[in-house]
Structure formats: C-alpha cells, structure tokens
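Table 4 source record.
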Amino acid sequence: MKGLSKKDIPVLVLCLSAVLLVAVYCFVWTNGREKIKELKDSNEKFAADIEELKEKSGNRQYYEDQTALMQEEIDAIYSYFPADVLMEDGIVSSVELEAEAPMIGGGIGYSPAVEVYTVGQGGPEGSSGTETQSGSDETDIEEDAEAARTGGATYYSDAGEVEFAEAALPSGYVGEYGPITLRNTIFTYTFETSYSGFKNIVDYFVYLPGRSTIGNVSLGFDSNTGLLNGTATVNRYSLTGTGKIYQQPEFPSVVTGRQNIFGSLELVGGGGASETGEESEEESE
C-alpha cells in the first residue's frame, strides 16, 4: 500500500483483527449463544414431556379403565332420555291419568320440541328450553289458605330458569350418530281432580319413564263440584344423536260409544225412571 510504512502495517493488521473479532462476537458468537440457550430450553421441555409421557404410559391401563367406566356412565345417562316426545305421548299420559289419578281431562296443549342444549356447543343464547313464570305470580301459604277458603286459585312454579354451561369439548363435536342435542317438548294439561288425585298426578310425572319436570301448576277450588280445577305445564325431554329410534306409545283401551246417545232417562217397569234403562235392585227384588 502506498503511503504506509512497514511500521504501520502491524498496526493496521491489529486494527483489522480487532474489527474482525468484534464482528465475530456480534454476529456469530452472540447468535450462537442465543441458539444454544434456545436449544437447551427446548431440550429441557422435551425431557419434561418425555417424563410425562412415560408416566402416562405407565398408567395407560388405568386411563383405559376409567375411560370405559365414564363411557358407561354417559351411556346410562343417555338411556334415560327417549329419542323424541310427540303429541301422542301426551295423549297417552292424559288417558292414563284419567284412570289412575283419577282426573277429568279438560284439554291438552302441545308445543313441539325445541333445542335446549347441544353437547360441545351449549344452548341457544338466552334460552333455557323451559317455560318460566315470574316469581311475583307465586302465592305464599297465607294467600293459598285464603284462596282455598274463597274458592280462588293458587300458583306454583319451579325454581327459576335452568342454565347449561358449554362443555369443554372440541368445536363441532358430534357423537357417533350426529350432534347430541337435548330437546324439550311442553305439554299443558287442564283437569279436574281431588287433592289426592292431584298428588297422584305429580307422582305420575315423577316416576314417568324418561325425564320430565312439572314447570308450573295453577289450582283452584270449585265449590260447586268440590273438586280442584287445575292447569299443569309439563316439560318432557328427549335426546337426539344417541342412536335411539322413536317408539310409538301403546294406547290403553278406551271405552267408546253410549247405550243412550241422548243421555235421557229411560222408563222402567212400575213407572220408575233410570238413566241406564236397567231395573234397580229394589225393583228386581
């Protein structure tokens, strides 16, 4: 190089060496050290994962047994719910109650099934799937006693809305037969019955196969008949996606026809009258 003496060359080489060392430190050594640290942390994580997997592998049989047990419990819960609840199911219940309570049926209201909850997705926003009534409409014990004395009506309802939390399952989870969805079919029964008959109505829905709840009940005393006039809203639940098939209910035998279509009195021998046209025991004697 021109302008450089032999004495300057060692100094120049020293400066270039220093610059090279700084560059190596900044761009090679530092980056390499960071990569080494990252690899070390990654190895430690892998080591922890390996230990966890070894532990799980050692408990494999336990997990399999517990999974099978939980699946049996889930299947048992699913077995409580029918595939569907239709209008004919409500009619059968009304016919059976007329004989078993006993009660005099006045009519049946029917609301088709609505979705309440889907496994892995939760329930419809702002919907619990049950009919509810504000607590201010319910009556206390004193009001019930006064209503019974004057022939008024009393009102009872369930304890608020039912809320379902979303399950911690993968998005779009479905069962073997499609989405597993809980649905609610609502029936409204109007009837006349005695006090003991009303208790039999409650017991009927408590022990009815499947899952059902009495949403609310309105009762009033009829001083003319001595019976209770009532209206009951019943929620009957079903579950889709379980592989079950809807079973048509068997209707109990129902007596049809009348011997006297006009319901008039019939004359009998001796100038007496009978509603059935049959002689009384006194006349036959």
